[in-house]
Write a structure and sequence with these properties.
Elements (H helix, E strand, L loop, with lengths): L11 H20 L3 H15 L3 E4 L3 E7 L2 E6 L3 E4 L5 E6 L3 E4 L3 E4 L5 E12 L2 H6 L4 H19 L18 H16 L4 E13 L1 H41 L6 H16 L16
Antiparallel strand pairs: 1-4, 2-3, 2-5, 6-8, 7-8, 8-9
InterPro entries: Band_7, Band_7/SPFH_dom_sf
Keywords: Membrane, Transmembrane, Transmembrane helix
Protein name: SPFH domain/Band 7 family protein
Length: 285
């Protein structure tokens, strides 16, 4: 495995001055009909001096190889001169976004879901990026998809079917993002790539079960709401009976209490407006 070697070549301004001087000397030699001398000077100037001049922009690097051997990486921005025989490959050090495609995968419980992730990454070690993998851009794309698939397989979408699940894809966004970032960092370290951030950008049930899961969620919400309503209604009935007994407003036997509880529960738990009925007789007639 190649380790990155950072080098700082000499400034290119002096070499560029030499290039201009040789260019002028070659043209002058040709002008005074010293064709051999002029041609030789221009050949040296354009074949050995000029190809060694490089410009390195901010957040950019040049990876240098000489006859198949790694020489080093220039990361300092500026104007430099290097061995003209080296092969110079530009590698950007800027942060990049990978907006992953939506993929269909089964979660821990086997439910088909659609999931996608956004990954922010940048090259940390240029030598690994250039020599450890064939194409680091393709490598990032494939490994990111593999990491998202693996993450979806080890966690359920939600805890409706697995109530003991402490982490779900739907509700554990921060924890899931942390785990995804850690796994991507491990996978991409081979290519010298640093993962800055990784987050789930899309999460949904697959179309074939989306409607059924929506109905299940709605039913769960209705049941939870009804449960809360019933608990509140029972408390209110209990409070009403206690206050009536405490204030000695009316004497209620067990049958009358049962009728009152029934009426109050109907009023409090019903989902429609109650139509009052005035009883002009007695409970026993």
């Amino acid at each position: 495995m190649y380790q990155e070697k950072i080098i700082t070549p000499p400034s290119g301004y002096l070499t560029f001055t030499l290039f201009l001087a040789l260019l002028g000397g070659g043209i002058y030699a040709l002008a005074v009909r010293y064709f051999g001398t002029g041609a030789s000077i221009l050949a040296v100037d354009f074949c050995l001096v000029l190809p060694g001049l490089i410009i390195n922009n901010p957040n950019e690097s040049k990876v240098l190889t000489l006859f198949g051997k790694y020489v080093g990486t220039v990361k300092t921005d500026g104007f430099f001169w290097v061995n003209p025989l080296t092969v110079k490959k530009k590698v950007s050090l800027k942060a990049r976004n990978l907006n992953g495609h939506q993929i269909k995968v089964n979660d821990k419980l086997g439910n088909p879901i659609e999931i996608a992730a956004v990954v922010v990454w940048q090259i940390q070690e240029t030598a690994k990026a250039m020599f450890a993998v064939e194409d680091y851009l393709q490598y990032v794309t494939i490994q990111s998809e593999a990491a998202v698939r693996h993450l979806a397989n080890i966690f359920p979408y939600d805890n409706f079917e697995d109530e003991e699940a402490t982490i779900t894809l739907k509700d554990g966004a921060e924890k899931v993002s942390t785990l995804l970032e850690a796994e991507l960092s491990e996978r991409l370290s081979r290519a010298g790539i640093q993962v800055i951030e990784a987050r789930i950008s899309h999460l949904a049930y697959a179309q074939e079960i989306a409607s059924a899961m929506l109905q299940r969620q709605q039913a769960t919400a209705v049941i939870a709401a009804r449960k809360l309503i019933v608990e509140g209604a029972v408390g209110m009935v209990e409070m009403a009976l206690a206050r009536l007994s405490e204030k000695n407003i009316v004497e209620l036997d067990e049958e009358r209490k049962a009728a009152m509880v029934s009426n109050l529960l109907v009023v409090l738990c019903g989902d429609r407006n109650v139509q009052p009925v005035v009883n002009t007789g007695t409970l026993y007639n």
